[in-house]
């Protein structure tokens, strides 16, 4: 309750929440407002926005309804963002907690693996995964999670390293507590606030990664992804630039919403930390 | 200097296990992949008998055990043999070699621009914290961070190349112009402006936020109060005491973020048709040329290790406490 | 008396909205004459440090601002001076030293350069840097000038700070807790240095401290501060020997005297904890980092008898905290044995040790860090019994009894740690340890983070509980005054070695080892006996 009130004091948090609710509403109402397949032909290709009242945002060069595509795309972006960040944060928390809590050679080993993942540029690793395992939606979502777990991992590890020698953890250990309750009950709850804040950044990055993949035509061709339409619009960029411009703006708004929510959470949960 | 040399050696030794993990990881990834090189070859040839497949597997050494194959793979890499590129019909090493210079130049420009602009904006914002310049700069930072780089590239092309016709929409230089010397430098520079801005903007946003936070953090430290108590004017306090300490986290971040930036070059090089490593990576995925793709992974990992090595040395120069 | 060097008249400082009070300082009047040392003494939150920053115009504006009053320095009102004029005075005519020399110096600039900055800014002679370092007693000044702060010891860093503050021969020196972060022997040397330089140059000194021992050591006059107001001023002798304000009297009564109280001669009980040849070496660095090792314990042996309090005293790095953590197995050790009622603790497996934890418990130093901020007080105390097999209801009932035992209301069980004061938190930490009914309690600097009046209350509680529960106590402290009052026997540690042990009264009266002698000679205000101390034991 107190955290919610602190969140609502942050202007960034409020704007972010409003934007995010709008994106979620678009995703939820997509089927009701645009019951047709967003990938199907809706009318004559390349109608400018406003030219046809039935198609408020016009059509792209494949004759798809841009407005409908936009709403269905919100669903795809949110789904990918959510699942990928659950994968990334899940792996990150697990590896980071073990490395930070036990230290020593366990930490050394896990950190070399983390560094290896960090050393290969994440988008190139994503390309390798797509090249090897194909580009179905599920594969892409998990792959995005797999290339994004290192940052939350380092964050959790750093928190665990500093918390494990804090006096209250030592006190619980001194009472004879076993490792599992120590990790889950004493350390983890105190390590989580910065991770929760960072999860919003992970979501923003996941959405950007998927849209870039879709833009290059390497994402699942059977889903309505915003990046996909931007890519399609490239061939008519000189004249009908709106085909690329509109879905790009949608990505911008969604990513901005997550960043602002992250900032609001940060203001509410740990006033001294800065999100990056 | 002994301190720096020892540190350099230690850092190099540390990157060896990381490299080993990457190589083994890539190898295992290929083992996991559905189908192997022979399947791909057979598919390209339009199918073949099981005997053909077995013969090919023997020829490629794929009939040996996993450990033996791993050993061979590492041995080949040690002699920098990255295999043949299927699309270009040349050794992968030479294909990559041709593209490396463009990417290196592109990356250096983007990094320099993002770092310098982020630094200046971060300092300006921190000096007027919560004033209007701070609000403006911080808002810009948030928006920059949210713009997809490839989309920004397209929009910049629409504005500056199509509508205004100030800058070229793509390519590394004007082909067939036969420019030399300074004229060529200027030509390449005009071609790089839009890609550099598109790629750098997100990193600029990150650096500006980091620099602002770091400045504010340092300004609250005791030694800054000491500097004021000495009677130093605010300008000197900032230049001599705050700035250098605030730069330390920025320098660390350049190392951490370089890998991400290199990844970002794939999309931007594709948008602007720059003949660099990133575009090559994209082409090799489209053409299913795994040899080239893995070669790029290896070379980019080496680049990241190299940049981090330089960054570590720079950091040690700036901070006398390191490695002491 | 001539006109004072510095006069504060009616100075008030406003705190931001939402602070615990509106004004940090209210109507503060102070005078410092040339050649005298005025000590401003008070507990944490009294506003004494803000007084120092207000004089130099270094308040953390815009949150904390000067609300009124005049700050007259050599006839000029610093509160109304334009920034450029004030800067010309800072560092030149008023020098300042801070509490923590490590953070007060720029970590990435050589020390000599930082001193030279003062000279440069105010038109001094840059060549004087080595001479200044020599004056504050730093060996090999040219090398020290080239060194970075982390390459000097704590005492040398503070000497360098003093050299910096005195570089322009200021008329006034403001010292804000300059020895609080230092070990007692270093503190004695720094106090002597400040005293010597100010006597030689006739500098006026405004010395801020929380420690009455330091006041007794160095002050000519004293001003006592309580919640932003000066409650008493006067010559040091008068304030220390015959305080007039009730607050001053209470503060002084809470200072433990250095002389150990007379104890009834009771025969020692049976041995409960036997430590033999305990060894610990800290090793850092891994496969690729440079390896370093520090011998923290070089074979320590001692015996704790039932019902006894054994004090372990020493300076930082002596190994005293390492002993505490080794006893409860929070640190692995390298050799020796720890026997509790005959059972070996050190060499047992972790699983075998776990049930033994109930017999030996620990109380920590920092009351703000030692309680999990996300658990209620009752749950924190019930945790131990729960782990060792008590039912939820039993553990809960035990927690309530423990709260009463340490003098807290049972309703405190439902509150979170941040709702308690430092002293109350330390009581909760004590209740948590006692809930397991341990045979031995290890207390690691349990009162060092507390203000002197709270410290006295916690020590009194500890003494009471010890008598009631016939506890055996290992009491780690750096404060010899506290040790004198609390401990039956004392063990002196120095760089990982046990240099001396003996009964408290005997050890204080006739220390044998040169290090013990030096330690005792360094206690600030050792010749002063606080008036009217209440008995602690």
Verbal overview:
- The complex is a heterotrimer of chains A (276), B (324) and C (537).
- With 276 residues, chain A is an all-alpha fold.
- Chain A has a single domain (2-269), classed as MetI-like (MetI-like fold, Orthogonal Bundle), CATH 1.10.3720.
- Helix content of chain A is 73%, strand content 0%.
- Chain A has helices spanning 2-8, 11-33, 66-102, 104-119, 122-133, 137-147, 150-163, 167-174, 179-215, 226-233, 242-269.
- In chain A, α5 runs antiparallel to α6 and α7 (150-163) packs antiparallel against α9.
- Chain A is elongated, with a radius of gyration of 22 Å.
- Chain A starts with a helix and ends in a 7-residue tail after the last helix.
- The N and C termini of chain B lie close together (11 Å).
- The mean pLDDT of chain B is 86.
- Chain B contains twelve helices and no strands.
- Chain B is mainly α.
- Chain B has a single domain (92-318), classed as MetI-like fold (Orthogonal Bundle), CATH 1.10.3720.
- With 537 residues, chain C is α/β, with parallel strands linked by helices.
- Chain C has two domains: 33-57 and 85-253, Rossmann fold (3-Layer(aba) Sandwich), CATH 3.40.50.300; 271-521, P-loop containing nucleotide triphosphate hydrolases (Rossmann fold), CATH 3.40.50.300.
- Chain C is 35% helix and 25% strand.
- Chain C has helices spanning 48-55, 83-89, 101-104, 111-121, 129-135, 141-146, 154-166, 184-201, 212-218, 236-241, 246-254, 320-327, 350-353, 377-387, 392-405, 422-434, 452-469, 480-486, 504-509, 514-522; strands at 6-14, 23-32, 37-41, 65-73, 76-77, 94-97, 172-176, 204-209, 221-226, 229-235, 271-284, 292-305, 309-313, 335-340, 343-344, 360-363, 440-444, 472-477, 489-494, 497-503.
- In chain C, strands 6-7-8-3-9-10 form a six-stranded mixed sheet, with helices on both faces. Chain C has a six-stranded mixed sheet with strand order 16-17-18-13-19-20, with helices on both faces.
- In chain C, α8 (184-201) packs across α20, α14 packs across α15 (392-405) and α16 packs parallel to α17.
- At the A-B interface, α4, α5, α9, α10 and α11 of A face α1, α6, α7, α8 and α10 of B.
- Chain C: It is a peripheral membrane protein.
- Chain C: It comes from Belnapia rosea.
- Chain C: InterPro entries: AAA+_ATPase, ABC_Ni/Peptide_Import, ABC_transporter-like_ATP-bd, ABC_transporter-like_CS, Oligopep_ABC_C, P-loop_NTPase.
- Chain C: Belongs to the ABC transporter superfamily.
- Chain C: One of its GO terms (molecular function) is ATP hydrolysis activity.
- Chain A: It is found in: Cell membrane.
């Amino acid at each position: 309750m107190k955290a919610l009130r602190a969140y609502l004091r942050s202007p960034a948090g409020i704007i972010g929440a409003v934007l995010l609710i709008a994106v979620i509403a678009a995703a939820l109402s997509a089927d009701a407002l645009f019951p047709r397949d967003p990938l199907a032909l809706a009318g004559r290709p390349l109608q400018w926005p406003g030219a046809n009242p039935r198609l408020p945002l016009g059509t792209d060069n494949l004759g798809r309804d841009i407005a409908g595509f936009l709403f269905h795309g919100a669903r795809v972006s949110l789904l990918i963002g959510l699942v990928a960040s659950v994968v990334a944060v899940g792996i990150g928390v697990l590896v980071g907690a073990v490395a930070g809590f036990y230290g020593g050679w366990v930490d050394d080993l896990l950190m070399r693996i983390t560094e290896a993942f960090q050393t290969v540029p994440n988008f190139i690793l994503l390309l390798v995964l797509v090249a090897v395992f194909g580009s179905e939606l599920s594969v892409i979502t998990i792959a995005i999670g797999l290339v994004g777990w290192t940052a939350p991992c380092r964050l959790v590890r750093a928190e665990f390293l500093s918390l494990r020698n804090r006096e209250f953890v030592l006190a619980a250990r001194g009472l004879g507590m076993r490792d599992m309750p120590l990790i889950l009950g004493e350390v983890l709850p105190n390590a989580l606030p910065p991770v929760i804040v960072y999860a919003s950044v992970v979501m923003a990055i996941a959405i950007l990664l998927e849209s870039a993949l879709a833009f290059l035509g390497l994402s699942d061709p059977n889903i309505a992804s915003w990046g996909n339409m931007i890519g399609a619009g490239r061939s008519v960029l000189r004249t009908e630039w709106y085909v690329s411009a509109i879905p790009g703006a949608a990505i911008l708004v969604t990513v901005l919403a997550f960043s602002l929510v992250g900032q609001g959470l940060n203001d509410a949960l740990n006033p001294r930390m800065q999100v990056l | 200097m002994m301190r720096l040399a020892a540190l350099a050696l230690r850092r190099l030794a540390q990157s060896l296990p990381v490299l080993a993990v990457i190589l083994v990881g890539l190898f295992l990834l290929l083992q996991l992949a559905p189908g192997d090189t022979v399947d791909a070859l057979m598919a390209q040839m339009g199918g073949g008998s099981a005997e053909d497949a077995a013969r090919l597997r023997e020829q490629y050494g794929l009939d040996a055990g996993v450990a033996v194959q791993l050993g061979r793979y590492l041995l080949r890499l040690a002699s920098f043999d990255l295999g043949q590129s299927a699309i270009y019909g040349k050794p992968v090493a030479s294909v990559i070699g041709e593209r490396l210079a463009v990417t290196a130049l592109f990356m250096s420009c983007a990094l320099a621009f993002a770092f310098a602009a982020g630094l200046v904006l971060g300092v300006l914002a921190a000096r007027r914290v919560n004033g209007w310049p701070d609000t403006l700069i911080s808002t810009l930072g948030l928006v920059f961070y949210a713009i997809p780089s490839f989309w920004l590239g397209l929009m910049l092309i629409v504005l500056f190349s199509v509508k205004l016709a100030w800058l070229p929409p793509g390519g590394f230089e004007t082909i067939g112009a036969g420019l030399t010397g300074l004229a060529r430098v200027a030509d390449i520079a005009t071609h790089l402006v839009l890609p550099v801005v598109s790629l750098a903007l997100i990193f600029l946003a990150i650096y500006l936020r980091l620099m602002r936070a770091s400045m504010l953090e340092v300004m609250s430290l005791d030694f800054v109060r000491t500097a004021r108590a000495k009677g130093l004017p605010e300008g000197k306090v900032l230049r001599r005491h705050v700035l250098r300490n605030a730069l330390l986290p920025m320098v660390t971040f350049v190392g951490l973020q370089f890998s991400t930036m290199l990844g970002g070059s794939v999309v931007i090089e594709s948008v602007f048709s720059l003949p660099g490593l990133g575009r090559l990576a994209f082409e090799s995925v489209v053409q299913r040329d795994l040899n080239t793709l893995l070669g790029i992974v290896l070379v980019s990992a080496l680049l990241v290790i190299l940049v981090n090595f330089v960054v570590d040395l720079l950091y040690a120069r700036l901070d006398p406490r390191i490695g002491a | 008396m001539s006109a004072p060097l510095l006069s504060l008249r009616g100075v008030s400082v406003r705190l931001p909205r939402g602070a615990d009070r509106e004004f940090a300082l209210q109507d503060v009047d102070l005078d410092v004459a040339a050649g005298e040392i005025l000590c401003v003494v008070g507990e944490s939150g009294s506003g004494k440090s803000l007084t120092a920053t207000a004089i130099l115009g270094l308040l953390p504006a815009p949150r904390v601002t000067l609300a009124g009053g005049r700050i007259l320095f050599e006839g000029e009102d610093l509160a109304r001076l334009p920034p450029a004029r004030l800067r010309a005075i800072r560092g030149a005519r008023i020098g300042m030293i801070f509490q923590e020399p490590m953070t007060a110096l720029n970590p990435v600039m050589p020390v000599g350069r930082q001193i030279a900055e003062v000279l440069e800014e105010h038109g001094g002679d840059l060549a004087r840097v080595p001479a200044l370092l020599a004056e504050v007693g730093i060996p090999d000044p040219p090398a020290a000038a080239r060194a970075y702060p982390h390459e000097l010891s704590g005492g040398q860093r503070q000497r360098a700070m003093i050299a910096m503050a005195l570089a322009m021969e200021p008329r006034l020196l403001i010292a804000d807790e300059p020895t609080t972060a230092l070990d007692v022997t270093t503190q004695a040397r720094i106090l002597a240095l400040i005293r010597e330089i100010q006597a030689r140059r006739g500098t006026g000194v405004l010395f801020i401290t929380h420690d009455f021992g330091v006041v007794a050591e160095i002050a000519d006059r004293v001003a006592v501060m309580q919640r932003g107001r000066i409650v008493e001023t006067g010559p040091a002798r008068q304030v220390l020997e015959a305080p007039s304000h009730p607050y001053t009297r209470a503060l002084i009564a809470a200072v433990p005297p250095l002389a150990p109280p007379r104890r009834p001669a009771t025969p020692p009980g049976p041995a409960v904890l036997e430590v033999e040849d305990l060894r610990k070496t800290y090793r850092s660095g891994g496969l690729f980092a440079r390896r370093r090792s520090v011998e923290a314990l070089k074979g320590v042996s001692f015996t704790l008898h039932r019902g006894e309090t054994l004090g372990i005293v020493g300076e930082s790095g002596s190994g005293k905290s390492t002993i505490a953590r080794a006893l409860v197995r929070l640190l692995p050790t390298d050799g020796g044995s720890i026997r509790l009622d005959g059972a070996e603790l050190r060499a047992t497996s972790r699983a075998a040790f776990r049930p033994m934890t109930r017999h030996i418990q620990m109380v920590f130093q920092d009351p703000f860090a030692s309680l999990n901020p996300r658990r209620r007080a009752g749950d924190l105390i019930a945790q131990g019994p729960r782990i060792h097999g008590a039912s939820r209801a039993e553990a809960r009932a035990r927690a309530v009894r423990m709260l009463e035992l340490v003098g807290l209301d049972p309703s405190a069980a439902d509150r979170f740690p941040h709702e308690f004061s430092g002293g109350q938190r330390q009581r909760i930490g004590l209740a948590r340890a006692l809930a397991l009914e341990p045979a031995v309690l290890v207390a690691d600097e349990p009162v060092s983070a507390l203000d002197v009046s709270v410290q006295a209350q916690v020590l009194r509680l500890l003494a009471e509980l010890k008598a009631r529960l016939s506890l055996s106590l290992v009491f780690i402290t750096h404060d010899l005054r506290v040790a004198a009052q609390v401990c039956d026997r004392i063990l002196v540690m120095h760089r990982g070695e046990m240099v001396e042990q003996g009964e408290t009264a005997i050890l204080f009266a006739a220390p044998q080892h040169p290090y013990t002698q030096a330690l005792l000679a360094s206690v600030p205000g050792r010749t002063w006996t606080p008036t009217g101390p209440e008995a602690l034991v």
